[in-house]
Amino acid sequence: MTATLNPPEAERSEKPASRRGDRIFAGLARGAGLTILLALAAVFIFLFVEGWNGLNAEEATYRPATDFLGYIGPLILSTILAAIIALIVAVPFAIGIALFISHYAPRRLATPVAYVIDLLAAVPSVVFGLWGGRYLADLLQPVHVWLHDRLGFLPFFGPDPASPNGRSLFTAGIVLAIMILPIITAISREVFAQTPRLHEEAALALGATRWEMIRYAVFPYARSGMVSGVMLGLGRALGETMAVAMVLAVTPVATLNVIGTASPATIASNIALNYKEATPSRQSLLIATGLVLFAVTFAINFFARWIVGRNERKQAKA
């Protein structure tokens, strides 16, 4: 009777070691999370301290603008427009490729296609910039003319004439779309593949087509992961520097026209182009613009995490 009530000696000796391992792992995980928070706080403090003078500098520092809002406004507009173009182009392709790899392509084809898409993320941004500025811009120039002739009544494609060399915000957005494509594809592919097999088989057993199964079983399960992938791609598009700087023909004019020659730089590319030769007051101004970009990116990611959490709570209640 005593032998049945007391646990074996081996089991009793393993419990303290197991608890010790759990404590070590929990401490490491907690330390990693706090390190990330400290790093973000350090970046914010640096940008705020170094860029404070740029918020209230002399009027000559903001030329051709007269104040900080007039200086940062065109940069924010260009940054957001380029990121929106990138998302409009990249998201449908990324989701389609992810679905093809996870649900349509045979295994012998899906594996190499996934490898090729993942390799796009390893290409340096300067290579995309060279390709976009020297080749893609010329290739897209007829598209610029077509958009201006057919859709010139919209502020995004008129009334100014199309760029004669194709180096516009539209081309920069296409380059950004290619750069963020592997990020969104990889995350979407993984969440699609994790959809419970029973959900898919149940939908097919009820007579659903493959597309209906994906629509009603895969997409609801993967919605939060898809949003996370899109937001990561958006963060990459907002912060890209060299590719945009090498493609875009920069002017200080604020405009909604994405195919014309008058396009201001994005915030990140403006910093990369001007920081090295800037005076101390101008450097403070550029750091202040970096603070604005940091805040915009943080706000977008916070909003994305709120959407993901809201969807997860809805699924838990369902």
Structural descriptors:
318 residues, MetI-like_sf, MetI-like fold, single chain, 11 helices, mainly alpha
**Architecture (CATH level 2) name:** Orthogonal Bundle
Any idea how many domains? 1
Instruction: Briefly note the structural class of the backbone.
Output: mainly alpha
Secondary structure: helix percent: over 70%
CATH topology: MetI-like fold
Family: Belongs to the binding-protein-dependent transport system permease family. CysTW subfamily.
Protein name: Phosphate transport system permease protein
Transmembrane segments: 24-48, 68-101, 113-132, 169-187, 241-265, 285-308
Membrane topology: Multi-pass membrane protein
Task: Give a summary of the structure in a few sentences.
77% of the residues lie in helices and 0% in strands. It has 318 residues and is an all-alpha fold. 32% of the residues are buried.
Description:
The mean pLDDT is 85. The protein has 318 residues and is an all-alpha fold. The protein has helices spanning 2-5, 9-55, 68-104, 107-120, 125-151, 169-193, 197-205, 210-239, 242-247, 267-274, 280-317. The protein is globular, with a radius of gyration of 25 Å. The protein has one domain: MetI-like (MetI-like fold), CATH 1.10.3720. 77% of the residues lie in helices and 0% in strands.
Secondary structure elements and their pairing?
Blueprint: H1 2-5, H2 9-55, H3 68-104, H4 107-120, H5 125-151, H6 169-193, H7 197-205, H8 210-239, H9 242-247, H10 267-274, H11 280-317
Helix pairs in contact: 2-11, 3-4, 3-6, 3-8, 4-6, 5-6, 6-8, 7-8, 8-11, 10-11
